[in-house]
Amino acid sequence: MPIITNIEDLRVLHQKRTPKMFYDYADSGSWTESTYRANESDFQKIKLRQRVAVNMQNRTTKTKMIGQDVAMPVALAPTGLTGMQYPDGEILAAQAAEKFGVPFCLSTMSICSIEDVAERTTKPFWFQLYVMKDRAFIERLIERAKVAKCSALVLTLDLQILGQRHKDIKNGLSAPPKLTIPNILNMMTKPRWCLGMLQTPRRTFRNIVGHATGVGNMSSLSSWTAEQFDPGLNWGDVEWIKKQWGGKLIIKGILDADDARAAAQSGADALIVSNHGGRQLDGAVSSIQALPGIVDAVGKEIEVWMDGGIRSGQDVLKAWALGAKGTMIGRSFLYGLGAMGGPGVTKCLEIIHKELDLTMAFTGHRDIHDVTKDILYPGTY
Does the pTM of the predicted model rise above 0.85? Predict the structure, then answer.
């Protein structure tokens, strides 16, 4: 077993152990992937001020996200097809997050259903909602999240239409994978993944199949999703969903200050500065670059979080210093999951927490609540 010291080590192992179409699904962006790359590289441009001869004892990274106690300002982002990166992936990730003390958010497009995760965890998790044209299905989905005692609804607004991701088209992405000769040959090199998949019944989109009208099997699912994502989504729909839900609401996919103001006025509890991991509008600004302007615009009215490009605890601290009261990680935990299952997600969280804690100390702080943009080197952010 290789020695794992950072998120990149987990990524390399993930790529080795997971079928190509699912690794590529996780680790790619739309079109030229320029925004996907900028999400990560723009963090590297921000430099830190090192401080010395300050008391570094008794440090804490604990805080709250929408009133919920968290071990650090990090949540596991909603990611589609997580149960195809590793068998029962959503369940394993939710369990690891619960044990570590950070929130887990389940995607509408998950392989394990809301009920699958609820039955195998003891604390409430969050549910992410895509808005479909079939409003009756949305009503039932929200009701299922309530029954499962989900503690927040994360409403994604930046996927009304699907950005083109070249690798998914070339790989013929599907869940379960189509048994073409290239896919079979690739899967033969991933025996651990194949064995695990044979042992679980969870191999399709279980939030949808059997729940949405006219979707009984995989052959009807792809046409249903192509038809169902709602390009007419608007702020009136957000108001309708808020009423249907009645609980904590988080709006995901904000990159523009005007949209941030609309999100704040909607009565949501938090917004997430996000470009969908560089998977939608290629050429859009990186999340970390968009963050300060959005914090300036609405940070006093609503909790501002961010996701996109976080590969270390240093990235988390930089986002916090620029005003984010929380962050979400998607690829980082997927690398861990694909590499080693549940223990890999735990490893990812341990790595990020240790880097966050040590970097906070090196910049002269013991409590994350005392960290401001003063820790950043002038002119680099």
Answer: yes
